[in-house]
What we know:
alpha/beta; Rossmann fold; Arc Repressor Mutant, subunit A; 2 domains; 10 helices; elongated
Amino acid sequence: xxxxxxxxxxxxxxxxxxxxxxxxxxxxxxLGIRIVAVENCSxxxxxxxxxxxxxxxxxDTGEQVCSxxxxxxxxTWLAKELPSVPIVVVSDRDDAAAVFEALRLGARAYVPSSLxxxxxxxxxxxxxxxxxxxIPLDVLISVCGYQRVxxxxxxxxxxxxxxxxxxxxxxxxxxxxxxxxxxARALEIEEGTxxxxxxxxxxxxxxxxxxxxxxxxxxxxxxxx
Length: 225
């Protein structure tokens, strides 16, 4: 996705005002996004036919989980009518159970509303280019514990890309947009040490900048301190 090629987005949300704010933010992002349709998850028994094809579907679930009947209807309809369109979930929930429920229903990415809005833009860019699953790092850090209650067939292997415990702690703050000085204070380490960690993180994740490193971090299948 870039500023030249138009990206058509179908937006499904539970709250009208929130949906309009999100739509305006995306269209003013400079990424060439055009909101094709805005659907209300709560009032519609099933989505109406979208006018023309869309490149990405965004489902804003609010505080609800994706298995809520009105939201699951959207997933079912998209899977039937637009099976090749990636689904990005925006949610007020960041617990592992909610994330896994979204992935089970077919979401390509899950973005908690607590994250920096720029992370959502990077996620849409990444997904539109065919990138794999995006899940928040702080949720992934708890995945190991959550996986203990999953059947063996559903559990995913842990992959940290060679990141050390210290690097994971720095990365957790990095993906929240914290500068080196703040990270240093939070972890009670020298700012120079943070810079070293950031350089190593970027190298291990093959990232070209801090923002990309934060985004790529969300793709880890699991992590631990």
